[in-house]
Amino acid sequence: MRIVLVRGDITDEAVDAVVNAANSSLLGGGGVDGAVHRKGGPEILAACRELRASRYGKGLPTGRAVATTAGRLPARHVIHTVGPVWSGDEDRSELLASCYRESLRVADELGARTVAFPAVSTGIYGWPMADGARIAVETVRAARTEVEEVRFVLFGETAYRVFAEAVGDAEATGGAGGVS
Question: Which of 13, 40, 127, 134 would give a disulfide with 44, using CB separation of 3.0 to 4.6 Å?
Answer without folding.
Answer: 40
